[in-house]
Structure formats: structure tokens, C-alpha cells
Amino acid sequence: MEKTILFYEGKAKKVFLTTDPKVVMVQYKDDATAFNGLKKGQIAGKGIVNNKCSNHLFQMLEKHGIETHLIEEISDTETFVKKVEIVPIEVIVRNIAAGSLSKRLNIPEGTALSITVLEFCYKNDELGDPMINDYHALAMNLATQIELEIIKSISFKVNSLLREYLSDIYIDLIDFKLEFGRYDGKIILADEISPDTCRFWDSKTKEKLDKDRFRRDLGGVEDAYKEVLSRLIGAK
Ligand code: TMP
């Protein structure tokens, strides 16, 4: 299999078609954005960390029965994945209050939530990915009722598996974002799971090991990303 033409370029990844119509190649970039593209920068080595981190976690999830788009890592920043039709819904799962939830509901960051919270956002940059509920998703035909139920059930399962796995390497999973795709009539996990798309806090020091270091100009961004990858690799 070989990559052919550029199919799509997003904020953090490029997607290339390949000689196999059912496969695309994702290439992770060092480019970083926040606040819907308002803040732009580069995080040296981010492409490598996110590619390897995401593939590592997808492999772990696959072992526990979660189907993902992962096919094969082909270089430090490039991976062959199944060509899915992305469901235009971003699923956010929250265990601990942080970020936009803390702001919207005035709950201090770090407050444990009594139950895991699941939110849907409409994946639309022009609108700034607004939060929606099941009714909006159905009204806009973003997914069917059955698909929404499958997406919610996989998301909660991913949360349990990730939390347990990360706790062994002293990382608290505060919240994260998932995206799903349609492939061969099934809903499978797509996109990435990385310090760009999760909040990871060191369990002991509560130090942030994720993109909030970039969003909030906390410094030590590259080191935090590398720290997550090195803990994951050590966890094998
Ligand atoms: P939020 O608190 O800003 O809503 O973010 C919740 C989680 O979703 C956090 O782990 C970061 C992730 N996220 C993305 O992956 N992409 C995005 O565009 C946003 C806004 C958040």
C-alpha cells in the first residue's frame, strides 16, 4: 500500500488517500491551535507523540474489544487507518470538572463529578463546535438513534478502560474527546486519543500533562507531551 494524493488537511493532521480505497494515511503535524483556531503555534515533536500515543491507546482498546480505525503505524508521524465516514459529532467525556464545564457551570477545576458526564458537540468549525443534545443530533440527521446509543455505550467503555490503564502510570484522566466513523455498516472509534484531545493530570502532583499547557501558556509543553508518551511506552 502507498499514499497517493492529499485528501484533507485539518488543524493537527493531514489525510492522504492510498492505493487501497478503504485505507487512508494520517500524518500528524506539530501545528497546534486552540480556541477554534484563534491561537496558533507549534509544539516540537507533537506529531510523533500524538501518533504514537494514539496508536498505543487504540491497540490497548482493541485488546479489550473496542474496534478502532487503526491499521498500522508506518513511521513516527504516519499511520494507515480505515477510511471511515466521520460522524460530525464530538463526544466529550468528563470525570473531573475542568475547562469549559468549569467555566459554564462555575464548578472549580479539579472537583470530582458525582457521575461521568457525556456531552455532544456539533463538529462544525464555522459555528465553533456548539454543544448539542440527542434531539439536535437527530433533528439535523447527524446520526440515527441507534448510532447515538452505540456511540454513548462505546464512549463510557473507553472511559473505564482508559482510566484504569492510565491510573497504573500515575495519570488521572480528567476528560477527553472522541470521534466516531461509519465503516462497513458499523460505528468504530476514529480520530485520535492524545494530549491534544484529553486532559491528563499527574496523579500525585496534579501537574497538567496535556494541551492546556499550550492553551494557557503554562510552559513546558513539549516536555509534558514527551512525558505522557514515555510513561505509555514504559507501561507495555
Ligand atoms: P473543554 O473543557 O474545552 O470543553 O474540553 C473538553 C475536552 O475535549 C478536553 O479534554 C479537550 C478536548 N477538546 C478537543 O479535543 N478538541 C476541542 O476542540 C475542544 C474544545 C476540546
Question: Would you mind describing this structure in some detail?
Answer:
It is a single chain. By secondary structure, this protein is an alpha+beta fold. It has two domains: 3-82, Phosphorylase Kinase, domain 1 (2-Layer Sandwich), CATH 3.30.200; 85-220, ATP-grasp fold, B domain (D-amino Acid Aminotransferase, Chain A, domain 1, 2-Layer Sandwich), CATH 3.30.470. Helix content is 31%, strand content 35%. It is built from six helices and 14 strands. It has helices spanning 46-63, 99-105, 134-139, 145-167, 212-215, 221-235, and strands at 3-9, 13-18, 23-28, 31-34, 39-42, 70-73, 78-82, 85-86, 89-96, 112-122, 131-132, 171-183, 186-190, 198-202. Helix 1 (46-63) runs parallel beside helix 6. The longest helix is centred in the middle third of the chain and has 23 residues, at 145-167. Bound molecules: thymidine-5'-phosphate (TMP). Residues 92, 98-101, 129, 175-177, 197-199 line the site of thymidine-5'-phosphate.
What is the correct CATH architecture of the largest domain? 2-Layer Sandwich
Determine the N-to-C terminus distance.
28 Å
In DSSP terms (H or I, runs of 4 or more residues), the helix count works out at 6
Give the overall shape, derived from the CA principal axes: globular
Name every ligand kind in the structure: thymidine-5'-phosphate
CATH class of the largest domain: Alpha Beta
Give the helix level as a range of percent.
25-40%
Range of strand content? 25-35%
Under CATH, the homologous superfamily of the largest domain reads ATP-grasp fold, B domain
Query: What is the structural class?
Result: alpha+beta
Estimated radius of gyration: 17 Å
Pattern of helices and strands: EEEEEHEEEEHEEHHEEEHH
Number of domains: 2
Biggest sheet features:
7 strands, antiparallel
What do we call the CATH topology of the largest domain?
Answer: D-amino Acid Aminotransferase, Chain A, domain 1
| Spans of at least 5 consecutive residues with low confidence | none
